[in-house]
Amino acid sequence: MLKVHLTGHDKYYGLTDVIRLWFDGSVEDKESCEILCPAGPDIRIESILQEDGSSICRTDDGRVYKPLGTPLEPGREIKRSLYLAMKDITGREAAWGCLTGIRPTLVAMEADSEEVLIRDYYVRPDKAHLAMETAKEEMRLLDLIPEEDISIYVGIPFCPSRCTYCSFISEDITKHMDRLAYYEQALEKEIRLLSPRINRSIASLYIGGGTPTVLEDKEFASLLDCVMSSFRLAKGTEITVEAGRPDTLTDYKLEVMRSHGINRICINPQTMNSATLVRLNRKHTADDIRYWYGKASDMGFSVINMDLIAGLPGETPEDLLSSVRSLIGLDPKNITIHTLYKKRRANISKAEVMDRGGERKGIDEALQEAYGLLHKAGYHPYYMYRQKDTEKGLENTGFAKGDTGCLYNVAMMTDYRDVLSFGAGSSSKRCFRQEGPDSKRRVERCSTIKDALGYIARFEEMARKKADFFGF
Ligand code: SF4
């Protein structure tokens, strides 16, 4: 069993995140000031925070690990000394080095150079390059969003069937059809209650889920009527609808989106391998994706995004690359590649998602090759985030052609712009500039009740809560 003893600090959480890059199942034992990991090798490591704020790790067989490079704040020092020890003990490094957080581009913005990410955080050079390239584009897009503006999210947490890997709040409407209409009505009421009080310009609007296009034609049109008549949107404002599952699309819904001025839609295959789609419990084929993409494209939607997932169960690296090539052939303006991650509620096992032992080769390499294909086809990365429990801690990256990066995604994923969200399970946030030379940010969040039935009963209370939160 791996034991990590904490001396001079109590950063259990950060160290557990580092151990998780190699082994699951760590537990904290605060009485003995130790993190215990039965899946790890039989060794005891002492993680020491020294008086000068630096950190070393010492193993019980006498090895000492002391990071070189620029001194970091104590929380990061402790993580990087343990990273050095774990890398040496396991003989395997992590693509993102000791960066375990969900926002590597925030660190890249601070570091301001690939060399610093490589030297101080042990990030692999290709990831350091990706992080810097993405961070620069994120900052450029952020500059297009005035700080006093707000972005809006409207959420429909329902889907026609549950994908096996799904971890989102997503009711199966095949069982709860009756709830969907009531939910849509409650959502409209919440929008009508709160929208007149918004005293800020709206930078972008995103209707997401779940799958918003799961609504019946009439309800879908009613929701778009409500949204477009309630929010004061300047001409040309980015408005996205996630039409993620092509099995929910109809000619009518595409026409309604077009006539309401929706200028960005997502048609998400996740893979262009139809056999995998069946295994994932998605009720559509790769041909359905081509068909609806072609229709939407012919109707003139200016930006179409298509999502893929790397590391789907049963897929080889070549399957991912084949999907990437298919999408490049369709030529959407945006392509986003996620890495499969495991959350508690998903129907697939952790073993299907992650390969902690390092025997399964290929996802990391396939991602690198996919990024190369995208670059060659004229796409550049514009936003990025990571989730815990992905294979090798790998990332999710949005790619765009030209100036089509999604402003909402950038506003949502950074700590720099406010987002007001409507609907069950949605989260609003306010970003504050901290006083001081390092201009760090503070983010406050306001969550809405997750359960759709609870939301239907309590949407007025949710609207009041958010009005207080934003001071409307
Ligand atoms: S479409 Fe998306 S939100 Fe819906 S079940 Fe599948 S993964 Fe989950």
Précis, in short:
By secondary structure, the chain is α/β, with parallel strands linked by helices. The protein has helices at 12-20, 74-90, 104-111, 114-121, 125-143, 173-194, 217-230, 251-259, 274-279, 286-298, 317-330, 350-353, 363-376, 407-413, 452-470, and strands at residues 2-7, 27-29, 34-37, 43-49, 55-59, 64-65, 150-156, 158-159, 171-172, 202-209, 238-242, 264-266, 303-310, 334-339, 379-386, 395-401, 418-422, 427-433, 441-447. It has 2 domains: 2-92, no CATH class; 141-461, Alpha-Beta Horseshoe (pyruvate-formate lyase- activating enzyme).
Explain what the structure shows.
This protein has 472 residues and is an alpha/beta fold. It folds into 2 domains: 2-92, no CATH class; 141-461, Alpha-Beta Horseshoe (pyruvate-formate lyase- activating enzyme), CATH 3.80.30. It has 15 helices and 19 strands. The protein has helices at residues 12-20, 74-90, 104-111, 114-121, 125-143, 173-194, 217-230, 251-259, 274-279, 286-298, 317-330, 350-353, 363-376, 407-413, 452-470, and strands spanning 2-7, 27-29, 34-37, 43-49, 55-59, 64-65, 150-156, 158-159, 171-172, 202-209, 238-242, 264-266, 303-310, 334-339, 379-386, 395-401, 418-422, 427-433, 441-447. The strands form 4 sheets. The chain has a 9-stranded mixed sheet with strand order 15-16-14-13-12-11-10-7-17, sandwiched between helices. It has a 6-stranded mixed sheet with strand order 2-3-1-4-5-6, with helices on one face. A two-stranded parallel ribbon has the order 8-9. A hairpin with a 5-residue loop joins β4 and β5 (55-59). α4 (114-121) packs across α5 (125-143), α6 (173-194) packs parallel to α7 and α6 (173-194) packs parallel to α15 (452-470). The longest helix has 22 residues, at 173-194. The chain is globular. The relative contact order is 0.11. Iron/sulfur cluster (SF4) binds at residues 159, 162-163, 166, 168, 170, 209-211, 244-245.
